[in-house]
Amino acid sequence: MRWCRLRRRKVNSVKHAGKKMFQEALLTGNMHSYFPLAEQFNTQAEPEYCGPATLVTVLNALKIDPRRQWKGIWRWYSDYNLHCTSPELLMKGVCLEEFAVLARCNGLFVQPFRPKENLNEHSLVKEQIAFLANSQKPPIDPLHSQIIAHEHSVN
Q: What is the pTM of this model?
């Protein structure tokens, strides 16, 4: 069994500095992608479901149709109705490559990015920008969205 370990955050969003950063980003018009994600935030159903829970949040925020009913008449993604997987598979946790396969199978255009080891924050951002500048664009991108996610360390 693999567990996701979260890295320490440099800024706590509920402290003064975090609230100030949020306010500045909001006032400068840089929060357009935050609200659809926050609106669809999904708490993982199992400790190992950190990857699927993230994917479910993204799929619902982008309004991707799961092509099947969730409960009643609602068509919605949850940890339990992702295409191309089962609870047994998810219970071991997913690595970046498995996350990319799940995302593709559920209708997303994905290009995994794994940064070099031991980069400082500035170098990591530069590497991400270079990757995005050189990456292939999806044939149709109706929401003009870029999603960058960092893989958590796993045992």
A: 0.72
